[in-house]
Design goal:
Rossmann fold, eight-stranded mixed sheet, 2 domains, DNA polymerase, domain 1
Length: 318
């Protein structure tokens, strides 16, 4: 897929979205929305498989959008690039006067962001502690650690990192107030208990959960997801599908619970003369995606990042 980044579950995403196209009325190829455009890998896969009438691509990382523009500059399908988080999806589609026939959101951090040490997402290289997905915003992770108090940081590490050693790690971080990724990683490693170090083993760095927690809080990733789980389904045309790729349990739990709730028939009082057709849920969980799908072995063999990915799909049926 180019530039060192491989879009995960691209084949399964195309399968999920292509299956809904025959149900789209006068626009057989529909409007496809990529809520997390990145470098355009999923869009390229979609355009190779079928031809949407229009593509609308969102990303809050302006650098990624520029790469996607370059990559997709020769596409025959018109593409509108929007520099915005996917919480802007609902208002933008309403302003454009369209409903989507297919929406994709890949919630993973881009390999390009992780590989660019200066972005401060990874402890693989010592760099300024940044972690902003949208670099037009002013507050960095280092700024965040300067202003947090102990109870707030403990909550963040517990809630977004599920870190058992949250209190001792939070105290160490606030004592050190690290400014670089290397300093933060070392602070966490030194503070973590021997018990937790043994549980993690050699394959997982002690700072992994802390980096995840700070990144999620700084970028309001779960708040963004909650907005998408409200606006995304409402923005679908009848027969349209919302496909979301998650990478950890905090995201996947939210998506699974919201999709299940939307796909259940509305509760009604016993004895009311309401026809069965009017009790039908407006959304469904289409097969084979009802319980989510994961990457096939041929994908995980050449793209280890895909091992933790799970695709869930919701279809609007009424």
């Amino acid at each position: 897929m180019g530039e060192g980044h491989i879009s995960v579950l691209a084949r399964e995403v195309c399968d999920a979205l292509e299956a809904s196209l025959p149900r789209v009325g006068e626009t057989p190829h529909g409007v496809y929305v990529d809520a997390t455009c990145g470098a355009g890998g999923h869009i390229a896969a979609v355009l190779e498989r079928f031809s949407p009438a229009r593509v609308i691509a969102f990303d809050r990382d302006e650098t990624a959008l520029e790469r996607a523009r370059t990559r997709l500059c020769d596409a025959a399908t018109p593409i509108l690039f929007v520099h915005a988080p996917f919480s802007a999806l609902g208002p933008t589609l309403e302003a454009e006067g369209v409903q989507a026939d297919g929406i994709l959101a890949d919630l993973g951090v881009s390999s390009m962001q992780l590989d660019q040490g200066a972005r401060g997402f990874s402890f693989r290289a010592d760099a300024p502690l940044d972690m902003r997905m949208d670099q037009s915003r002013s507050k960095t992770a280092a700024n965040l650690l300067e202003e947090l108090d102990l109870p707030s940081l403990i909550r963040i590490l517990r809630e977004y990192g599920e870190e058992p050693d949250a209190p001792r790690i939070a105290r160490a971080i606030l004592d050190a107030r690290p400014k670089t990724t290397g300093a933060l990683a070392q602070t966490v490693a030194d503070a973590m208990s021997h018990k937790q170090r043994r549980k993690l083993g050699l394959r997982i760095h002690p700072a992994t959960r802390t980096f995840q927690a700070i990144r999620i809080h700084l970028n309001d990733e779960l708040g963004e997801l909650d907005t998408l789980l409200t606006d995304g389904p409402a923005s679908l045309s009848v027969g349209g599908r919302l496909a979301i790729i998650t990478f950890h349990s905090l995201e996947d739990r939210r998506v699974k619970q919201r999709f299940r709730k939307l796909s259940r028939p509305a509760d009604t009082l016993p004895g009311l003369p309401i026809p069965e057709s009017e009790r039908q849920a407006p959304y469904s969980l289409p097969k084979p995606f009802a319980k989510g799908v994961t990457a096939a072995p041929d994908e995980t063999d050449h793209n280890p990042r895909a091992r933790s990915a799970r695709l869930r799909v919701l279809e609007r049926v009424a």
